[in-house]
Amino acid sequence: MFGFTQGCLPMTRWDELTTFFAKAGAKIIFGLNALAGRSIKSDGSAVGAWNYTNAESFIRYSVEKNYTIHGWELGNELCGSGVGARVAANQYAVDTAALQITVQNIYRDVDLKPLVIAPGGFYDSNWFKEFIDKTTKSLDVVTHHIYNLGPGVDDHLVEKILNPSVLDGESETFSGLHNIIKSSTTSATAWVGEAGGAYNSGHNLVTNSFVFSFWYLDQLGMASKYDTKTYCRQSLIGGNYGLLNTTTFVPNPDYYSALLWHRLMGRNVLSTSFAGTKKIRSYTHCAKQSKGITLLLINLDNSTTVQAKLAFNSTMTLQHKHKHKHKHRSRTFHHKHRSHKTMIIQLPQGSDAEISREEYHLTAKDGNLHSQTMLLNGNILGVNSSGIIPPLEPLHVNSSKPIMVAPLSIVFTHMPDVIVPACKV
Fold this sequence. Notes:
The chain has helices at residues 11-24, 53-64, 89-106, 125-133, 157-161, 164-169, 171-183, 212-225, 253-264; strands at residues 29-32, 39-40, 46-47, 71-74, 115-121, 141-146, 150-151, 189-195, 198-199, 228-233, 265-274, 280-287, 293-299, 305-312, 318-325, 330-338, 356-364, 374-376, 379-380, 395-398, 403-405, 409-415. The protein is of the alpha/beta class and 425 residues long.
């Protein structure tokens, strides 16, 4: 398929890889060949049952070697219309059950059981609904892939990334899958199993440059909003969409965006809406490992500075009043965060001089969206001669002042003194 020759993974190489994984502290998901045993018809349909003999042998070897595998995933991009080949949802459900039984048998005497994951492909509502409904007792995680920007050779990727309508389009996938899972008796959770934005290795100086953080952070925010539990970025290294430079291994801008997200955004997501302009993308979570909330604001506009002022209304809804500064217009918008419980929100106590928040402003070096150098609060982010990641230090800003979001910039704001019910430990 696709002109590739047949390949194999020697167990000596697998041993070397697992040693590397252990040193890196990585959680490993291994994708199994789901086409084994099938015949592929001229129309791309793959028929017949999955032959799991090789997979069973490999899983058993890994258990005998005491390798910790977080999850076994069945197949790659075979759902719906598929990529190169496709398998019907009913047959895929049968094969997933076979994988689950195989895993149960091999891990019978192992305390830590791996996840059974599938199908690892592009979302198709009818296919996914049938598959999920038929795997309620065999599936732990439902995975889907995202390359919503199209091919990497597209010369209009930047325009797509900065287009709110393009970004909004993927919400149909997240909400659709979320609703299918909610309406099913399954206990499976949703993951994005692979996402590189632009397929066929992305585009140099776009998917590995500053501008891609607009897409990436918006994806993380949107995925969280619809209860996605894990988001796997394509890739750590490789192609033009890696988090690390493929030659020097130094971090690209998205590495720092991911690191800030990981450090600042907690697991509890606060419902967030913004009225007035779609050029501002906004997401709010309970702060991670600290008090308060963290607000993420993404400004896609190339000429408008946003001033965000925190306020509360009588219904205990957390608000941000946004005033846009532009030479031709001035508007005030309201940005609301609702917790799911009706309780009193605790306001910061003390004088304005005593209350501060932490801000992390991300911009491109020299204002060049294609730059592979990111600035944090005006300072270049880069590793030292030993390859050590720099400290990600915030600005400490008086909470009475508005949050200033410059054109084509990203701001994380941690407000430790704003306590909402959903964030109470």
